[in-house]
Specification:
Blueprint lengths: L14 H21 L4 H8 L3 H4 L1 H23 L2 H21 L5 H29 L5 H28 L2 E3 L2 E3 L3 H22 L13 H19 L1 H4 L4 H23 L14 H30 L5 H29 L2 H15 L11 H28 L6 H34 L3 H6 L1 H34 L13 H4 L1
Antiparallel strand pairs: 1-2
Subcellular location: Cell membrane
Keywords: Cell membrane, Membrane, Transmembrane, Transmembrane helix, Transport
GO molecular function: transmembrane transporter activity
């Protein structure tokens, strides 16, 4: 794209500065999605809550984030780009400040802080993709989304490692001592977010066209309750199991009914709140399904593998995070390259090769033992993340490539919504399979008294069986994605050349 890129008021845009601010701000916001994972034991002690209670800090983030993503289509269409991004940053800063000052007697206030952070994340994730596509030409979409992939892939993966490092001990930086406690996780990101906010006042511009679209309250309510109930039900699986009518079955059934009504309503609106007509394009539908499967493969194993390393191998949260860090760096390094290769060759061959790597890197986890070398785990995880990098951004680029420019904001919201719901359901499936197998193989309590050593060994074997089943299920998701990838169109498909016409 030429250096004469202009904003909606005809003023020149510093594309590099705007993209850098977008990526840094989004990175800091998305980082919080996983950063509290290693701090949950510390939070349980500080706030005097049990494991089920403290887990709501993660659940509330995922639920609010998932609810906000479909709303982003309306926001991106109605609200000027600069105001929307600055608002997201400000909401995030307010939420983070609340977390820093929350007294240990007010756990509910920390949940409010997490909800505000999730609102910001739900705004910036789709906005980052839409703005990146607007800043770069159609021929460079892969490169643009490759940089976005660096953030989406690395931020959640670095979260546990960063928080583990913070919690490990006190740290001194520029003469300031940062305490090794949970508050420091929030304190560390505040200066960066504030700096990005202040600089964005100058360099961030209104690059997306807006329309005077009225908010359809009925659609907002249906979207919030429909997706919210499904996300809530899937989040409750780990605690109550799939057979719990009150906590899992009923919320998910109600959610599906509301979503069905929501979809029917959207199909009859002249200006839909969330344009589901994008699914009429077969290429968009296939790529959205594949992105969801890739996200399940990434998030699911990122959840199970640290549990294995900490419970079976006895690694600290920090060392567990460091074991996975090379994989996160691998994905970050390859995402821009994957975008470049997509611009040259399209998605099909890249995605098939990428899912091959993910499958090869997942199957050996089925044979993990209590003595498997960590270097072996790190190598396999790097291979998996290399494959994820070669699938995620080419697929997203391909999905957006078949849409007209005025459909991109809606398509991005739809793509991200399906991905969030799929990741939540996929994670619930993996965790429930793991726990179910562990329960089936857990020895009787009488053995603990009769032969403590044998009981400990059988408990270890039960845990390993659960992890093996979960990894095998993850490999199954990848295998389905690998087969489905062959239905992608060869080469690049654009809105100017609809996939239907090429078939």
């Amino acid at each position: 794209m030429s250096s004469e890129l202009k904003d909606m008021n005809g003023k020149p845009i510093n594309k590099i500065a705007m993209m850098a601010l977008l990526l840094i701000g989004s990175f800091v916001i998305i980082l919080m999605q996983t950063s509290l994972g290693t701090a949950l034991p510390s939070l349980m002690t500080a706030f005097k809550v049990d494991s089920a209670g403290v887990q709501w800090l993660t659940t509330i983030f995922l639920m609010v984030n998932g609810i906000m993503v479909p709303v982003s289509a309306f926001l991106n269409t109605r609200v000027p780009t600069k105001f929307l991004y600055l608002s997201a940053l400000l909401i995030y800063i307010v939420g983070t400040l609340i977390a820093v000052v929350t007294p240990t007697s007010a756990f509910w206030l920390l949940m409010v802080a997490r909800a505000l952070q999730a609102v910001a994340a739900g705004i910036v994730m789709p906005l980052m993709q839409v703005v990146a596509l607007a800043l770069f030409s159609e021929e460079s979409r892969g490169k643009a989304l490759g940089m976005v992939g660096l953030v989406i892939g690395m931020a959640p993966a670095l979260g546990p490692t960063l928080s583990g490092w913070i919690l490990d001990q006190d740290h001194t930086f520029l003469g300031l001592t940062i305490a090794g406690n949970w508050r420091s996780i929030f304190i560390l990101v505040l200066p960066i977010a504030i700096a990005v906010l202040l600089i964005s006042f100058v360099y961030f511009k209104n690059i997306l066209p807006t329309r005077d679209v009225k908010l359809n309250v009925r659609s907002l309510i249906e979207s919030t309750f429909g997706f919210g109930l499904i996300l809530f039900g899937s989040a409750m699986v780990s605690d109550h199991g799939w057979t719990s009518f009150t906590w899992v079955i009923l919320p998910m059934l109600l959610g599906l009914l509301v979503i069905a009504e929501f979809a029917w309503h959207q199909s009859r609106m002249a200006v839909p709140f969330l344009d589901i007509s994008v699914f009429k394009n077969r290429q968009f539908t296939i790529t959205t399904i594949l992105v969801s499967l890739a996200f399940i493969a990434m998030i699911g194993v990122e959840m199970v593998l640290p549990i294995y390393m900490q419970r079976v191998r006895g690694l600290s949260p920090l060392n567990s995070g460091l074991t996975l860090l090379p994989g996160a760096l691998m994905m970050g390094a390859l995402s821009p390259l994957a975008g470049y290769l997509y611009d040259k060759h399209g998605a099909r061959r890249l995605v098939i090769f990428g899912f091959s790597l993910v499958f090869i890197g997942t199957v050996p986890f089925y044979q993990l033992t209590e003595t498997t070398p960590t270097v072996f785990i790190t190598t396999l995880y790097m291979l998996r993340m290399a494959g994820i990098a070669l699938t995620m951004m080419p697929l997203t680029s391909s999905a957006m490539g078949v849409l007209r420019q005025n459909q991109v904001a809606q398509g991005t919201a739809v793509n991200n919504t399906i991905r969030q719901v799929a990741a939540s359901l996929g994670t619930a499936v993996l965790s429930s399979i793991m726990q179910s197998v562990i329960n089936d193989h857990t020895p009787t309590s009488s053995l603990k008294i009769k032969d403590p050593l044998e009981y400990a060994q059988q408990m270890l074997n039960a845990g390993l069986s659960g992890f093996h089943a979960s990894f095998l299920c993850a490999a199954g998701f990848v295998l389905v994605a690998f087969i489905l990838a062959f239905f992608l169109h060869k080469g690049k498909v654009t809105a100017a050349e609809p996939e239907e016409e090429k078939a």
